[in-house]
User: What shape does this take?
Amino acid sequence: MALFALSGASGVHSRPGASDPTDALTALLATAARTANANEAALLRLKTETAVVEGSKDPSAGFVSRDSVNMVVHELRSPVTVIRGYLAMLRDGTLGEFPAPAAAVLDTLINQAQRLASLVDEIPTLRGIDEQAVDVHVRSLACSDLLGRAQARSAGRAALAGASVKCDSRGDLTVLADARWADRILDNLVINALAHGGGMPHVALTAESVGGDVVIRVQDDGPGVPETLRDAVFERNVRGTSESPGSGLGLFISRGLARRMGGELSLEASAPSNGATFSLRLPCAETFTPALHA
Assistant: This one.
């Protein structure tokens, strides 16, 4: 099976016996440990080489950094694919019956594997933002579809957290945006709201017309953004606390993507009793005037 044809980086070359999920778990844990070590080594190498490039006066040095990015992403994707493959087979019963009491643990592992895959995918996007080279293909998108998709994608995570995600798009609002990047921004905002919104957060997605643009808001009822971080929350590697989940890149990447589409992402409001409200402002498809967005 192609999922398990991995080179020496992971040490996994064949699928375990289909009748024993314990063997699959053992192989999965071993692969996960090797993946963690590979991630740490690859990211350390990328960080070191990037620092060298940024300190170099040679304009061609940037090409070394781009090559390093591609190499690191390739090295990380292979073991992550193996982990996700094993988890999928455990979930669907291909490897035998999985113990019911461990189902919640398996769900958590699947979610974390998806998160790791997303982080790996963010590496080239991050580099593209730094170089202002992210491909953007804007078209007219219905806000009701954007918000509805974001709500649907967050359903599993919200259920695990005992949270609710609701959306309300007024009228037939449309925006000019790249569907991939608009989805990525909303996913980042909703994931942040669920992660930082308290024990059982309530998240609301709304859209309204404001001054010729459309403003999409993602609001939670959690503790809000710490006052000391409100000016820095969109900077690279900034997290709420050292214990906060995530890489500290989600909002940095999201703002960069918003600006590449001619929009803006901002922290509109934050208060301990009312949570945080992030607003994504995008050109309205019906009233877009290039001169106003130049």
Remarks:
- The mean pLDDT is 74.
- The longest helix spans residues 21-54.
- Residues 119 and 247 are 8 Å apart (CA to CA).
- The chain has seven helices and seven strands.
